From TrEMBL:
SUPFAM superfamilies the record matches: P-loop containing nucleoside triphosphate hydrolases (SSF52540)
Name of the featured protein: Nucleotide binding protein
Domain EngB-type G per the UniProt entry, residue ranges: 38-246
PROSITE patterns cross-referenced by the UniProt entry: G_ENGB (PS51706)
Keywords: GTP-binding, Magnesium, Metal-binding, Nucleotide-binding
Originating organism: Oryza sativa subsp. japonica (Rice)
Length: 255
């Protein structure tokens, strides 16, 4: 069985995916301040305003669990939500690129860039649209979280399906892949397309998949979602349940 609107096969590790309860645990300004227990966790990552908070709110069905805002960069800490008292959903700061205090967002809108940028600048760069005083070194902040968090099951990399592929998202996926960090592409805003910014969500998703096909010997799992219609919610939770159960099994088998 394949989960609808995805390439994800339901396997033997799929289990109870219902969200019975969820609670905010803490915000951490540093990776080393994150909760210190052995519960598995999923990190939610993506460009600012890609719909991270909306997805989290939809998954756990609490309208104000994760603060949503039209202002990019609202999330500036690592925020842990405990689900069913057994696993964490982690809201990470949205990424963006800075140059003269302006976001340079990949190849958005087809704008030409006079200088060469790569994903290292995302980590050296700071929270999108955050104030100067609120900015911090993402290299030691979020990058440290990815590389040192032993309980990280995988990353939900959110990609806006209402616009054409963005270089910054592709660079992010490439960095995660090179560091052997498991990821699932979660295409957001699949219920709409933006005027003057490309084709329909299905066309943008296909173009994104074709662009990243050379980066992976096998395509990573992906799923289409919409926080407005609920598309993909149950399927994503089912996918997360089998990843979680597989992780638990491997942890039990490890010496």
């Amino acid at each position: 069985m394949v989960i609808p609107a995805s390439n994800i096969v339901v396997g033997p590790y799929a289990g109870d995916s219902r969200v019975k309860e969820a609670e905010f645990v803490k915000s951490s300004a540093r990776a080393r301040d994150c909760p210190k227990d052995d519960r598995p966790e999923f990190a939610v990552l993506g460009r600012s305003n890609v719909g991270k908070s909306s997805l989290i709110n939809a998954l756990i069905r609490r309208k104000e669990a994760a603060l949503t805002s039209k202002k990019p960069g609202k999330t500036q800490t690592i925020n842990h939500f405990l689900v069913n008292k057994s696993w964490y959903l982690v809201d990470l700061p949205g990424y963006g690129m800075y140059h003269n205090d302006k976001i340079i967002d990949g190849i958005a809108n087809g704008e030409k860039q006079s200088e060469k940028y790569n994903f290292a600048l995302v980590f050296i760069g700071l929270f999108a649209a955050a104030s100067q005083s609120a900015r911090t070194d993402w290299s030691s902040f979020t990058k440290g979280y990815f590389l040192n968090r032993d309980t990280l099951v995988g990353v939900l990399l959110l990609v806006d399906a209402s616009i054409p592929p963005q270089k910054i998202d592709i660079d992010c996926a490439n960095w995660l892949g090179r560091n052997n960090i498991g990821l699932t592409y979660v295409f957001t805003k699949c219920d709409k397309s933006k005027k003057g910014k490309g084709g329909r969500p299905e066309e943008n998703i296909k173009e994104f998949q074709e662009t990243i096909s050379s980066l992976y010997p096998e395509p990573p799992p992906w799923i289409m979602t919409s926080s407005v219609t609920g598309l993909g919610r149950d399927g994503l939770l089912l996918h997360m349940s089998q990843l979680r159960n597989y992780w638990d099994n491997e942890a039990t088998m490890s010496p």
